[in-house]
């Protein structure tokens, strides 16, 4: 059974660090994450707005994502039937079959979904592949990632087949406090 968490705060905010300069604000409520990000990365800017709807088991049911870049505005909608079958903008997306979470490149907040949804015993590596929505072009791909809970309550995280590694720190509500190299909680 997944861990129990405190109630979400009315809002949370993150400052991006290292490769990305920017800020994210989210207004979490039960069953929904509604947020915005503005960032500068590799000389390119983007603004992303998102609304993610979750079922009672913390599985993503729908993610609406809007992006604005120098190339103009874009939007995409990814939907799940709750059993691992996905559509992207209404079209079947079999390359995403079996996934339970959405992970937005423009968001530190979306790393809260697996820790709420999964049973993560101390020391056990748990695969948590996700539907990954890229910030600049809203391309939707499969992202392989793992989580492993440490005895101190932090989580070892890997993605891209282990090419990226970080130790994630969460608050009592299960929201990221420190995502080394990516973001730090600002409020």
Automatic annotation (TrEMBL):
Domain of life where this protein originates: Bacteria
One Pfam family it belongs to: Glycolipid_bind
InterPro entries in the cross-refs: Glycolipid-bd_prot_put
SUPFAM superfamilies: PA1994-like (SSF159275)
Protein name: Glycolipid-binding domain-containing protein
Organism name: Cellulomonas pakistanensis
């Amino acid at each position: 059974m997944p861990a129990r968490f405190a109630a979400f705060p009315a809002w949370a905010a993150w400052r991006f660090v290292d490769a990305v300069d920017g800020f994210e604000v989210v207004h979490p409520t039960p069953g929904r994450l509604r947020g915005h990000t503005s960032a500068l990365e590799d000389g390119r800017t983007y603004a992303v707005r998102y609304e993610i709807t979750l079922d009672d088991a913390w599985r993503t049911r729908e993610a609406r994502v809007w992006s604005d870049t120098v190339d103009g505005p874009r939007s995409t909608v990814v939907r799940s039937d709750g059993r691992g079958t996905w559509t992207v903008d209404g079209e079947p997306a079999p390359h995403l079959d079996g996934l339970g979470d959405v992970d937005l490149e423009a968001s530190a907040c979306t790393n809260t979904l697996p820790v709420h949804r999964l049973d993560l015993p101390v020391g056990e590596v748990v695969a948590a592949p996700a539907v990954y929505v890229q910030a600049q072009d809203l391309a939707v791909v499969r992202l392989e990632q793992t989580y492993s809970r440490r005895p101190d309550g932090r989580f070892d995280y890997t993605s891209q087949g282990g090419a990226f590694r970080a130790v994630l720190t969460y608050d009592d509500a299960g929201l990221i406090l420190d995502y080394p190299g990516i973001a730090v909680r600002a409020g």
